[in-house]
Structure formats: C-alpha cells, structure tokens
Design goal:
Four copies of one chain form a homotetramer.
Chain A: E1 6-11, H1 16-25, E2 31-37, H2 46-49, E3 61-62, E4 74-77, H3 81-87, E5 97-100, H4 110-117, H5 123-128, E6 130-131, H6 134-142, E7 146-148, H7 152-166, E8 175-181, H8 196-199, E9 204-205, H9 213-222, E10 230-236, E11 243-250, H10 258-269, E12 275-277, E13 295-302, E14 307-314, H11 318-333
Parallel strand pairs in A: 1-2, 1-4, 2-3, 4-5, 5-7, 6-7, 8-10, 12-13
Antiparallel strand pairs in A: 8-11, 9-10, 11-14, 13-14
Helix pairs in contact in A: 1-11, 6-11, 7-9
Chain lengths: 348, 348, 348, 348
C-alpha cells in the first residue's frame, strides 16, 4: 500500500452488516469512510441513524443514487441481492474495488442462480467477480475489482471442510452440514418470524435442504473435489451473533485417526491469521470468536462409524460478513491482510 | 384404576426434574404427593425450598434415608445415577412402582454400562427394569414394577426414527443425530461451565460421539433394526427448556418421496396422544411444546442426496423427563394414559 | 354456578393474550371455548393458526364480524383499544359478560382518556364498566356485565401499594414506580423496536412518565388515598414473560419498621388465593410466578431514608392479562374464584 | 508520555475484569502486558486458560506470589477485595502505578468500610488511594500512585447525578437509584444463584438498600453536596453486559424545565470523550455502549411531580471496570486519556 488513505463508501449502512463495516473500518488506519448510504435515513447524521456510533463519524447518510458515479477507492455493497445486482455497475469504476456482501455475484451458473434467487443474474459482472474467501482464493482476490463476499454459512462450512476434500480424506457425497445461527444473520427488517418473543427460548430448523447457500457451498467445495454434494440444514438459535457448524463426513482413508484428522487442519491453516485450530479435547464456541474475524475449527474422529465430525464457529457479522469483506479489501488493495482486523474477541 | 388416590413420593425434589414432577403431579387427580426428599433442604417446607411452589404443597422436605422402606404406591427417583443404583431397592417394595429418571437402569449390557457410566450396574434390578418409552413399549410398561425413564436425547431421537427403521425405509448405519439442548438438561448443580455468562450468547457442541446417550439410543433403535449405529453430537443452546433434534439417514427405498416419508410418521403415530406430526411445510419448534408432554416430529426428503431429514422437538423436562415419567406411571397404575398431562404448551 | 358449561368466545385469539386465554381456558372445567376470532387467520383451524395448540382445539378462526350479535355467556376481547371500543356493544347482550383486556374502558375521565389514548372513549360503556382487579374490587366485579381488565403495569403496582395508602403508612405523593417488563407485554405485531436482535442483550427505559398506565395507576390508587401521584418509568428487558416492579415511597408513620411494613401486606392479603407475600429475607422473582396467576409481593424498610421499597412480580400474560381476566370471569359468573387457575408456576 | 512502551501486569487475569483488561490492552499502543497471574491456571498459556485469546498473547499464567516485588510500570489488580488488600503493597513500588478494581480502597471511612466489607481496611494505602473517576477527579488521578477504580454501579450513578447536585438543581436527599445489571457484574465464580437456568428468563432485585455500593455512591456524591443520601436497589437482568440506571430526584429549582435539565448535562460533559448525552426524545440503551468505554446519559423532567428522571447506560466491564481502569492508567502515566479506548460499541 501507499501511505495515502483510501476513500471508502459503505452502501446500506444501517443494516447489521453495514453497521459492522462502520464499526470495523473505524479502527483501520489505511482507510477513511467518506460516504454512507441509507435510503430511509437520508439526511440524518450517522450518529442519529445509528445511536451506538454517536460521536464517532462526522458523516450524513445519503440516498444511494446521490452516490452514483462518484469516485471511491473501495465501495462496500451491504444491500439486498436485487439492489446489488442493479446498482453495482454504478460503482465499478476504473481504479475502484467493489465488495458485495449480498449473494448477487457468488453463483457462477446462471440457471442455478435463477433457481435459487428467483431473478436473472448480471452475467457480465458475475463473470469477473471473484469469490472472496481469502484462505482458499487469495491470489485471485489480489487481482479482483469485484469481490463476491461469501455467505456466513458457506464460510463456516467451506473453510473447515476444504482441506479434507482436497486430500481425499473424506467422501465428497453424503456430507451433512448442520448449522446453527444467531439471529443477526437474518437481517434487520422486522417480521413476525423475527419478533423477539417468537424466537427467544425457541429453537428450530428452517429451509432444510432448501437454503440458497446450498449451491454456494457445493460450487465452492466442488473446486476441491468435483461433484461434491451436501445436505445442509440451518437452524435459528436465540442469540445475536454466531454461526456454529457441525459437519459429518465419511472418512475414506482407512489409516486415519484423531491426530491424523487434526493434522489435516493444522497443516492446511497454520499460517492463516484468522483460522484457529482448536486442539483435542477443546471444541469451538461462538462466544470465543464474538466480535472478531476468527474462525475456530476442530475435528473429531467417530471411529465406530468411520465418520469425521468437523466443527467451526464464527461471528456471522465479522468473519461471516463484514470482517471477511475488509480482509478481502486488504488483499485487493495491497494492505497487510490483517490490518485493522487483529483484536481479541469480546468475551463474554 | 380404582377411585383411591395413589400415594406418591418424589425423591430428589429440588432438582429440575423433581420440581417438574411436583409441578405436573399437582394437577393429576388420581395421585397425591405425600413425601418428598431433598437432603440439602431437609426440614424446610417445600414452599421455602422451592419458592415457585409456595402455597401449593403442605409438605416438608426430608432426607432420603428417612423414607427408606416406607410404603408408597409410586416412587419417583430424580436422583444422580449412582444414588438411584444404591437406593432403588429400598423403595421397590411389594405393590409399589418405582420410576427412575436417571440412567441407572436403562442400559442392559453390564459391560456397556460400566464403560459409559464408570461404575457397576445393579444387575438384578436392571434385568427387571422396563425402558419406559410408552409409544414403543406400552405393553411392557403395563406390567413393570421398575421403570427406567428414558433420557431426553434418546426420547427426541428414538420416537421419530423408529418407524423408519421398522419399515426398512432408512439404512440402519450412517445415521447422524445432531441434537441441540436447552440448559436445564444439564441439571441444577452449579459449575463453571453452566455459569450464566459462560453460556449466554454462546453455542457449542460437547462430548461429540462420546455422550452416554449413544449406547441408549443404539440399544433401543436396535430393537427395530438389529445393529443400528448412530453418530450422535449434542449441543448446548442458551435457552432453559427444549431439545431440538435433527436426524439424517440414508433412504434405501427408491420409491420414497416427501409424502411417503410423512405417511410413515402419521401411520405410526396417529393414535398417540402425545406425538404430533407437523405436516409439510411446517416444522417443529421447541417453543411450541414448552411446558407440555408433546413431542412434535416432522420429516423432509432431500431428494438430491436420498437423505431423510427427521426432526423432533420436546421439552426436555416434560416429555424428556418428568412428563414421560408420569405417562409411565399412568400406564403402570392403570390410569388413563393422558391423565394429568393434556394441557396446552406455554407459548411464548 | 350451575352445572351447565358456559359458552365462551375469545376475540383476537392469535395475539399473545388471546393465545394465553386459550391456554388457560382449556383446563377450566366450567367453560368451553366455542368461538374464536382472528381476522388474519380466518378460515384456518386454531391448531394451524397457533401451532402450540395443535390437537387441542377443534375450532376454526373466524372474522370478528362473523360473530357479531351471537349469544355467548362470556366474551373476551383481546383486541386493540380502538377495536374494543367500536365492537364491544356487539357482544354486550343480555346475559353475557364481556371482559375487555384492552385499555378501552379503564379510564373513567373522558378528557384524561382522550389525552392518553388519542381518541374518544365510548362513554356509556365506560360508565358501566367495572375495573377488574379482584383483590380490590371483588364486590363490584360480581355484579359487572362489562369488565375492564387491568393493564399489566397497574396490576403489578396497585396491588402491593394499595394497603400502604389505605392505612396512610406511606405518603401519596412522590411515589416512584420503576417497572421492568418482558417483551410479550408489547404485543405480537412486528416492528423494528421489537425485532429480536434490537432487544436481545439490550436494556432500556421507554416513555418515562409518559406511559398511558400512569393515569390508570393514579386513578386506582386515588381510590385508596385521594390525589395519589406517581412517577412511573417502564423498562424493557429481554425476557418473554414477567413484570418486576420496584416502588419507592416515603414512610410517614414514624413507628414503622420492617416487620410492621410486612404485616401491612400479610394482613391485607392473607386470604387472597393469588397474592403471595414473600417474607424477609426473600424477594420476588418473575421466574417464580411464570405461567401462573400469582402476584408475589414483598417490602423492605430503608430506615436511613424512611423509605418503603415495595416489590412485585407477575407474569404479565397471566395475572397481568389473561389469568386475571379468567379470575374476573369466575367472580362474575359465580364460579369459585380459583377455578382453573390454581396450578404451579413453570420453573425454570 | 515517552515513546517507551510501558510494562503492565494483570493480576487475576481469568476473571471477567481481567479478561477484559487483556482484551482492551491488546490494542493500546503505549503498553505491553508482560505478566499475568491466575492462581488456578498457573503454568497454562493465556490462550489455553482463556480460549478467546488464543493466538493473541504469548504469555503464561503465573501464581500471584511469583510476581511479588517485580518491577512493572502499571499493575492492575483484578482480585477479590481481601486479596487486593493484602497484596497491594507488594506491587506499589517506586515508579509503579497500581490500579485496583476491587472495593478495597474506595471507602475512606474505616468504620464504614468495616461495616460493609466485613474486614479491616489497609488504612495507610486507603489514605493515599485516589478514587479513579476521571470525569470528576482528573487532577488527583494525574498524581496518583494507587488508584481505586470505581464500582460499576457507582459509575453509572455518580456521573449523571453529580452535575445536578453541584448546581443544586436537585435535592440531596430522597434520591432513588434503581439499577439493572447484567450478570457479568456478579463475577465468574459459579454458584447456585448464577447458574444459567436460575437467571435466564428471571428478573429480580437483590440486596435492596443493603448493597456495599451505597456508601461508595454517598461518599462520592457528598463531595458535590455534603450529606447526600440515596436509596439504592440493584436488580439482576439476564444479559451478559450492561448496567442501566434510573435515578429519581426532586427538582428544587422552580425554573427548571426539560431543556434546562438537559443543559446541565451537556454543559458539564461536552468536552468529555466518554460521556455522551442522549438528547430528547432519545434514551440510552446498554446495547448502544456494549464493548465500549462510553457512558450514555439522559434526563427527563416529570413536571407533574417536580422530579428529574436521570438515566445512564454503561458496559459494566468497560466503563464500569476495565475500560475506566485503562482511562485512569492513561491519565496517571501521561498518555492521551483516550488512547486505546476510542472505538465503536459492538451492536448488536
């Protein structure tokens, strides 16, 4: 990087991902947030629109169309899928990097996209978009101008499973991914389902084998083992932040044992700044990564059933969204990858 | 039953299962709780030892040894495993039915028991004990004098899976049981792990493939398909009550589809008073059974992976413990099975 | 009462108070719910509209206008204030008792009502309505045809304070009422403010000295000491059920001490079936009344400041709404006052 | 400050205040934590003793006595009161600043201390200790060698009330302080009372007018208006972090109104980096300060009762403990007061 402060815009600033971007970017010494959009709060100061940020940003929210065709070094789109699709080209100007936190540009196959998202993708943009999972695609991200930031569930599932597929330790079919998510993952728009008393002290699955993160996970894991198929069931847990993922896969390497499985993870990730392998007998917990960009992972061998049980814990708003987006920004802009992202989790 | 009120003792009354027994038995017109034990609260009134029950019971807590060899019609043991093992014979007197809520008498194989519980079972008692899952063992319960009340996880797993195994719809190996439990399932004794702020806003797995409910589940499911094997991982969720279980199994019947799978459940359980099959597109939620003896179950067919995804939700203190214990009592004593147990869940 | 089962209608059945009425009425042996209204769920079975009640009610939700002018023995209005105001006369037919759970008929002064509710009261109905707080107005309730069921905050504040005012133990000005409520008190309609993640792990006051329960509390307490004035501040706490109220009042009787204050409560309420005085050093807790019709109360003397600190805990959906409504029904119809309402709280 | 990195020790590192010190000090560029004590974890790495900190500190926990008489620039005591009392002199060496987060040195009057803490204070040390509330005692802190870091409740109460007393806007008697705290304020030691299911969905007062923060609040407020007396009642709310305080005081200035009251706060604190005055109609919320060193304050005028209602929200572990301790360190060592402490709250 040069010593020049990069100019950043955050679009959709009053959603949870947008607020989290503002929280994290505040402490990043290489960038300055110079514009934020929030259509429903246009004209309000950031501190008024987002009370936790009072006194920290001297900015006023604008309508997104007021920012069209302006020059920024980095533009974060924290918008609904459809809106990202339609406005992205307005910000993808020469010299700019656009990082989209929606699902608009993640799925490469137009038919698959249409089936799961219900509208047509923006093909030209999707073709150039790079899937922004640094641990697995760092080189491509370095050259990217449009980054499709991964979904929270795909982040929690892909990182811990990829090394096992790559080394052919597990079978690439019959993989079960049972994920448990906090409620911020569902966004900030009010609905009957997300009303406090409907969720609090409740516990349920939703969209079993029907969630749009299924094709995203299968697309990315197939990069390591062609034709990978997963059964994915998300659950909703009454906490604010965190995705805990439990993955079950058939071990096809007969010589594997607990330490061998653990070695697959440590060897794959020992140099990664945000992947922490929790060693036996420890296990991840979302409360050990809260507020941080870490993904904590672990594995157990269920010898009786020749099954690997793989675990991960992330904060869905950080490693599962805004933190990973900043990690991508760091890579694409040539900052040190860790810049602004190395700090302890908030416990408890 | 005769018109005579049955005399009931609740031992271990100040644990969560004990308190729940007192809550539920209060409204049962065929019985009267005439004695309660709680060693640490001996000499205190029930209302003082358990403030929510103030004004409802005119009884004083006793030491358990003060109740040895007394005559009761029914004795509920809500005690630690070891204590149930050692005191059970003191209450298993002629004419009495003993219902044990611990794991002391559930596992039939002495070696398996020793391995998972760490001490020797009481063989003679285990031999006569009946596993008290009414939906699957009603006839045996009718004749039982000692009933081993099932664990909460085995209840949530066995009831929805059994019909699929019985009909050979699913394979009996490679079954994955991913269970999520509220915290009352861990009991009432304080510990660092169960301290409020350690759990609240946290989410984690524990004892993966190492929980002592594994052999209990395998023993019972093997009654429907010999040699059934499961990979079982429990998780701890920061809510008070409820176990939500998600089960993944390979469908081996090629002609199955969503409605066929659902029919397996409805045909198996349409006459059961406490099993509710949630029809597509609905799914169970622990907050729809809270405080009640219902187990809500559902199934989804993941056609791409030929996998049945089976769901259940129970209140671990009711259907997973004290409610099921009373259901067992009703059967063993000749009451109507539903007596004292049919009332709406507490929502929210 | 006669042995005849009374016919009950619950209007607004899918709100939290409506659901709670259905939960509690289910176990009341003297009545049968024969009709329920829920405009948005018209045509759906109760079990489909309210999944926790699946299998318990063989009824279909209707539009409220389909029930106009039908004959019921008891009609519960669990409706918005404005709707109660406009439809009440449709159900107040000869022989019927109408119990309104909204604020439509609680305030006697038309100007005060207009100021706090923003619309005109239905004067003729308000004139005949009896404020349904059994502990303080039992005789009037017995003769009532229209009962204005108290608000949850006024219930938690009025019952414990009234005896002190009546006996002139405390001053009737400068009374501070600091109330903390669970979220079901805010109803079931989704809004940004009641979105799960906005409330969870949050804690705040709202409408300080501006809540419409202020005039209700002052009106009722002034019945015991004319001109009583209170400073009332409600707070929102991320739990489902419960109102905990802490009241501060100047002790004007110089001879008072802790036991004297406690005696005021025990003497006032020793015969009340739903008031439990928690004796020193105990204190109420909402988790000791959850799901029940109890109000637990206590008092402490802060001698240094000559201040009485008065506490209460209720379940806002039971004693604060539907349970008290049924208690009123019992009185008005001549049932035993406790009928269908005496059962243990759900702990934890 | 000089450019030299200051050497810091954190004693009692595995309690919640200790962990929070390590979290916050990590990002402070002027200091380095060089030693941590945790008797029960002696010999373990910090990352093993405190899993959220894995990979962030290359330190091993030691027994506290292993650190006696070593040279540090700053020593934080996050220990029980008694232990702080007995070990403090071991660390109060020439050139060192000791910041004690317990109550050992806050109360100046030996008799008052004895009455509320139950043991004898260390008089010589208490005499030199400075009460570390920067907004009110900045100059004294600058010269302090031993700083008594305020309690969380006194922080939430004193800061918003002091300006009103100083200006004689409110009476100094009859002040009611109703505080609601998250559970981390009660520490990390397991107990029946702090067991998850005992607190979750519960709500209660504790130690009404009997909490040891009463004399601390009265001592400090009396510095602004001699003889100030308060009725203080703390409550326990099932959240992790946060203290919300509601204070009621008689307004004795007849010319006051809402804007006049608000002006008292803005004039007193407009230059304070960590005090945010929330303007009408806004109100503080603990979720707007979580994880941060802010105290958000507001006031409302209840004109009918001539009462000022004063509000504050803090994160008890930050402004109520470890953050304020670091703010004190910054002042005492000559760092910029904000250093390492200006970052956005974690919302939600």
């Amino acid at each position: 990087m040069t010593g020049v402060t990069k100019r950043v815009a955050v679009l959709g600033a009053t959603g949870y991902s947008g607020i989290e971007l503002l929280r994290l970017l505040y402490s990043h010494s290489g960038v300055a947030v110079v514009a934020v959009s929030a259509d429903r709060h246009a004209g309000e100061t950031v501190g008024r629109a987002i009370p936790p940020l009072a006194g920290l940003y001297d900015l006023t929210c604008q309508r997104i169309d007021q920012l069209y065709d302006h020059d920024f070094d980095v533009v974060f789109l924290a918008l609904p899928h459809e809106q990202s699709t339609s406005v992205c080209h307005r910000f993808l100007r020469p010299g700019a990097v656009v990082i989209d936190l929606s699902g608009a540009f993640r799925i490469k196959d137009p038919a698959v996209f249409k089936r799961w998202y219900g509208f047509e993708m923006e093909r030209a943009l999707t073709d150039v978009a790079v899937y922004g999972m640094p641990e697995l695609k760092r080189d491509a991200i370095r050259r990217a101008r449009l980054i499709a930031n991964p979904g929270c569930y795909p982040t929690g599932a892909t990182i811990p499973v990829a090394p096992f597929l790559k080394r052919r330790v597990i079978a690439n079919t019959g993989i079960v991914i049972d994920a448990k998510s906090g409620v911020t993952g569902a966004g900030r728009s009010p609905s009957q389902e997300l009303h406090f008393s409907e969720l609090n002290e409740g516990l349920r699955a939703y969209k079993p084998a029907e969630h749009r993160h299924v094709p995203e996970i299968e697309q990315e894991l197939s990069g390591f083992s062609s034709g990978t198929r997963v059964t994915f069931v998300p659950h909703l847990v009454p906490i604010n932040r965190g995705v805990f993922t439990t993955i079950y896969a058939a071990v096809q390497d007969r010589n594997m044992d607990q330490s061998g499985l653990e070695a697959v993870l440590t060897e794959a990730y020992h140099d990664e700044p945000f992947v922490r392998v929790v060693r036996y007998p420890g296990l991840p917990n979302v409360n050990a990564v809260r507020g941080s960009n870490y993904i904590d992972i672990a594995v157990r061998y269920d010898e009786q059933n020749s099954t690997a049980i793989i675990f991960s814990a992330i904060d869905n708003l950080v490693k599962g969204a805004s933190g990973q987006a900043i990690q991508n920004m760091n890579i694409a802009l040539g900052f040190e990858e860790k810049q602004g992202l190395v700090f302890p989790p908030v416990f408890p």
